[in-house]
Amino acid sequence: MRRKTTTLCVIARNEEATVGTTVKSVLALVDEMILIDTGSTDNTRIIAEGYGARVLDVPWEDDFAVARNAALAEATGDWVLILDADEFLEPIRPVDFQRMLNDPGAAGYRLRISGARESSAGSGTSSLRLFRNHPDVRYRYPIHEQIEPDLDRWARQEGLIIHDSALTVIHDEQRVERQNHARERNLRILRKALAAQPQEPYFAYRLACEGIVELDGEVLPVVGLKSALGYLHQAWTRVDGLDEQQLRDLSWAPDLGAKICSALLAVGKLDDARAVARRLESAFPHSAQVKLQSIAADIRYLVEQGSELPYATTAELTTLTRRKLEGLRAQTRAALDAGLKPEVPVQYVLRCLGELALAEGRVSEAFGAFEQALSLDPSYSFGWLGMAECSRFAGDRKRALKLYLRTITESEYNHRAWLRGCDLMRQMDFRDNAESWWRKVATLFPEHPEVMRQDALENRKGVPVH
Questions:
Q1: DSSP class per residue in 9-69
Q2: How far is 248 from 285, CA to CA, in rounded Å?
Q3: What pLDDT, on a 0 to 100 scale, did the predictor assign at position 466?
Q4: The pLDDT of residue 228
Q5: How crowded is residue 14: how many other Cβ atoms within 10 Å of its Cβ?
Q6: Alpha carbon of residue 303 to chain centroid
Q7: Degrees (nearest 5) of the Cα angle 50, 51, 57?
Q8: N or C: which end of the chain has fewer CB within 10 A?
Q9: Residue 154: partners with Cβ closer than 8 Å, 6 or more residues away
Q10: CB neighbourhood size of 34 (10 A)
């Protein structure tokens, strides 16, 4: 096995607290280290140079791609490894690392990201950080920069593949003030980029991501959802007109589609959500993220419309949904067996299986699925919510109420538990408790359709009659 050389490329600014850990984590793996300094006033340069890195000054232009590409232009290794200055690589034996680099069919590897709020790929679980060094492969976009479009195009020409990898990058959790500063910077750069290139859907998509809050992959109707949905729609109208191959070339398109589907469900636009899901499934039939959102939309459809649908239609959709879930379950098991972090955790699938069973009236089967999800993660709020719904279905309202409370104890952002618990309190004539819960719902989820409907009614009541 001929040894392949690797260049570490890092961009940094005032990262003296973490850059040493970053460099040390790869000393046994790389042959060259290039650090692009975008204006440090601390000891970042001194620390990096002390470990043998070559430090180059590049003026900051509100463009991460420019800084990344400045490092790539200097790289001489066969391969490039990308780390941020607040990240480090989990240990891997050099011989195993070399085995990855010597795979003749590999163009690059997506590495698992642990501890990151999100990755540049949008999924929050992996990011393309290790790839062959080639002059045609460069980063795009000034923020949330992407190397995958160029690498993917070059790889197809060469008959190579981008692989997922169990190799993990650990992201140092930032202090709150640093997170706020990074978000303000990101928003500034994205708005400037969108103003300069209004036809580029990626910028609208990333602006939407900055304003979305999610729980278990479900977009929440909190402050900012309306604005985020506007950006998602702007991005989606740009990509929806592409043919399927063009759509597949956008590595972030599944995440865009999944987010817009979930956001549409959050504001009660079920038919629109299902239409987006069908378009996505056609283009990305193997994407677990896309399948999960399609399943979520179909389960919601069965719950809300099932009683009005012909039996044959309901049975067909239920069978298809269950088949998709079992396929996802097998896909998740295969990822775990391969030592990879699955795109859809097991408890997500169990939750959906439980919800589907409950929609069919199979309460024992639903209870078993939710119980199994909780055995994997006792803090899983949607598992407790499922148990509450099972108890309610069985007529045990007091137990259901306790389980709704347990659900919001595990996560106060589980808006379904707040709403369902509030509804049950009203049924049981616990008026004061229901009012207290509703005030919390209105505070946490002001853009939920039911909250907005109630607000509209209250406003109409307050208008004097002339």
A1: EEEESS-TTTHHHHHHTTTTT-SEEEEEESS--SSHHHHHHHTTPEEEE----S-HHHHHH
A2: 10
A3: 38
A4: 95
A5: 15
A6: 26
A7: 70
A8: C
A9: 107, 134, 136, 137, 160
A10: 24
In a domain, 235, yes or no: no
Supply the CATH number for residue 156's domain: 3.90.550.10
Residue 123 C-beta-side C-alpha neighbours within 13 Å: 22
- Total number of domains in the chain: 2
- Residue of 438, 411, 348, 410 lying closest to 213 (CA atoms): 411
pLDDT at 334: 82
SS3 82: strand
Helices 288-305, 270-283: crossing angle, 10 deg rounding: 150
Q: Is residue 15 part of a domain?
A: yes
Q: What is the mean pLDDT of the chain?
A: 92
List all residues 6 or more positions away from 316 whose beta carbon is below 8 Å from its beta carbon: none
Residue 409 lies in a domain: yes
Query: Which bin fits 144, alpha (ψ -120 to 50), beta or left (φ > 0)?
Result: left
Report the pLDDT value the prediction gives residue 344, as an integer from 0 to 100: 80
Structure tokens at 241: 């007109």
Q: Is 206 exposed, middle or buried (0-12, 13-18, 19+ CB in 10 A)?
A: buried
Q: What is the pLDDT of residue 244?
A: 86
* Bridge partners for 219 per DSSP: 214
Q: How many CA atoms lie within 13 A of 344 on its CB side?
A: 30
Question: Within the chain, which residues score under 70 in pLDDT?
Answer: 116-124, 173-177, 339-341, 459-466
Residue 378 lies in domain: 359-461
d(CA 270, CA 364): 28
Contact predicate 6/79, CB 8 Å: yes
What is the reported pLDDT for 298?
A: 95
Q: At a CB cut-off of 8 Å and minimum separation 6, what does 86 contact? A: 15, 18, 22, 171, 172, 174
Q: In the prediction, which pLDDT does 176 show?
A: 55
Last residue of a domain, one of 153, 172, 191: 172
CB 256 within 8 A of CB 203: no
Select from 264, 350, 347, 352 the least CA-distant residue to 303.
352
Q: Is 411 exposed, middle or buried (0-12, 13-18, 19+ CB in 10 A)?
A: middle
Question: What is the number of residues in the chain?
Answer: 466
Helix (H) or strand (E) run with residue 116 in it:
none
The CATH number linked to 418 is 1.25.40.10
Name the nearest CA neighbour of 211 among 231, 182, 234: 231
Q: Domain boundary at 141, 172, 203, which?
A: 172
* Alpha carbon distances (Å) from 29 to 6, 33, 97: 7, 11, 7
354 within a domain of the structure (yes/no): no
